[in-house]
Amino acid sequence: MIDKIKAYIYEVERFTTDNTEDLEQFRIQYLGKKGILNTFFAEFKNVPNEQKKEFGKTINELKVSAQSKVEQLKSEIASKIEDKGLYGDLSRPGEPLEIGARHPISLVKNRITTIFSNIGFNVSEGPEIEDDWHNFSALNLPEYHPARDMQDTFFIQTDPKDILLRTHTSSVQVRYMENNEPPIRTISPGRVFRNEDISARSHCIFHQVEGLYIDKNVSFKDLKQTLIYFTQELFGKSKIRLRPSYFPFTEPSAEVDIYWGLETETDYRITKGTGWLEIMGCGMVDPNVLKNCDIDPKEYSGFAFGMGIERIAMLLYQIGDIRMFYENDVRFLKQFKSSL
Ligand code: DAH
Description:
The chain is α+β, with helices and mostly antiparallel strands and 340 residues long. 42% of the residues lie in helices and 19% in strands. Helix 2 (20-31) packs antiparallel against helix 4 (49-84) and helix 5 packs across helix 11 (309-317).
């Protein structure tokens, strides 16, 4: 029996807790009315006389150590609660929740897609990893075209050179025409990749928005009117000019300039003193491209255009270095908080 009490003493000494319920449980178990101590005290009368003295001493030891354990843990728990307070330290300064901002590229992309969806364009997307057909061949890009060169294109598969990171969103035109019947009005925003040196003006990853309109009797007039509507909505300026240009997938092709004006010093700088700024490429979809996508060029015609989102964002927000879009510096991103 004495060994049993000693085992309890050992257990009491080892016991620890930091919560009040467990401590109360412990107190009842040892010191309660029907607790371990009282059970041993009740046994006292049955203990042979010669052992009574040692029994009494040991059981007293158990009592004292259980009582002091309860006192010790009680004050430890109390001081911890005092430290924290029930709700933590109420005098600590609040932790501000930083509200994020949309990325300027997303802001401009959303504005462009809204402007076009207001006149009936839907939004379509295509894969960033493309094949030669959708990025080049179907778009009438002949094999000797410089855009196919290793220097401009990131090829994923080089033997044969078939799988690549798309160099423009025009590849989505092809996919869309392959899978949909005219009339087609679609706008395709997305990321594009070119093997170019990174500088303040150009990057190897950037964004474009492609537009495509195919129907019966679509003419260059429709293209021009759509662009005037677009520039008015986006920049609040509708004076544009179409300069003859060349793209393999459009015939005729044009480069679109917007009259930015020459009011400020910045206007002089960004327009190189001319007042005009180039904002996109466009043209009438080449009959060969329609044929490649199983659309009859005798029945249908259409226009297409493509623009770089970074370039437009740089104009709208007066950003001087394209690399800022990709650095994710919060001091830069924060500035777009109030923009929609
Ligand atoms: N794909 C051209 C580029 O990346 C942009 C472009 C020009 C797209 C004319 C078009 C277009 O749809 O008609 O530079």
